[in-house]
Amino acid sequence: MNPGYAGRTELPDNLKVLFRPVAMMIPNYQLIAEIMLGAEGFSEAKVLSRKMRQLYKLASEQLSQQSHYDFGMRAVKSVLVQAGMLKRKFDTLSEDVVLIRAMCDANVPKFLSNDIPLFYAIVQDLFPKSEIVEADNSEINKSLTKSCRKFGLQPHVPFLKKIVQLLETFGVRFGVMLVGSTGSGKTRSYEVLADTMTTLRENNHPDRQFQKVV
After folding, report:
1. Which one-letter DSSP state was computed for residue 71?
2. Crossing angle of helices 138-150 and 186-202, rounded to 10°
């Protein structure tokens, strides 16, 4: 039992007397990040882990408080796993650029529009010499455009961007929830993504992340 934690229930008093309470402390995120980055092959793990901890601390303090924002251990771990995947995929990129891209891929899709410039400003402050490089999504965007036309939709650039973000989020999370007002395109975004992934698999795309979706 973990009383006081979101989603957990308090232990009944008659049961509580049978157990001894245990004090818990917040884990050292920086040390955990340093070890995981080192295990993923990052040579600058110590410096990057310090910057990452600072970024999450500043983001939790300065961004708006939303119930779906998460800067805890789960979020940190998903970013570190994503960073390892990106490092293996783009071995020519510098390590700080790889970590920045992982942090942006894992966090930006869930931020409200007002918080995105703030988050990028924090990243720029912590990594002043690094340029934030956008991933090249031209190939997936071509397939998404075809699927949009199949559904009778306009391939609006912000809509395509959200679908790509949804795909990237699936890469680091087991469960994903689409949040937004009625008519904002939640259902259509996952339908278009499912159709695109199925089509790419039927065309024998070399990337194994594109599979037939039911």
Report:
1. -
2. 110
- Classify burial at 99, counting beta carbons within 10 Å of its beta carbon; exposed 0-12, middle 13-18, buried 19 or more: buried
pLDDT, tens digit (0-9, with 9 covering 90-100), for 31-77: 999 999 999 889 888 999 999 989 888 988 888 888 788 788 888 88
Residue range 105-117: mean pLDDT, rounded: 85
Question: What is the residue extent of each domain of the chain?
Answer: 29-126, 138-202
Residue 86: per-residue pLDDT: 86
What's the fold here for domain 29-126? Helicase, Ruva Protein; domain 3 (1.10.8)
d(CA 135, CA 211): 21
Q: Which residue has the tokens 């931020």?
A: 111
Round to whole Å and give the CA distance between 173 and 158: 22
Tell me how far apart the alpha carbons of residues 77 and 70 are, in angstroms, rounded to a whole number: 12
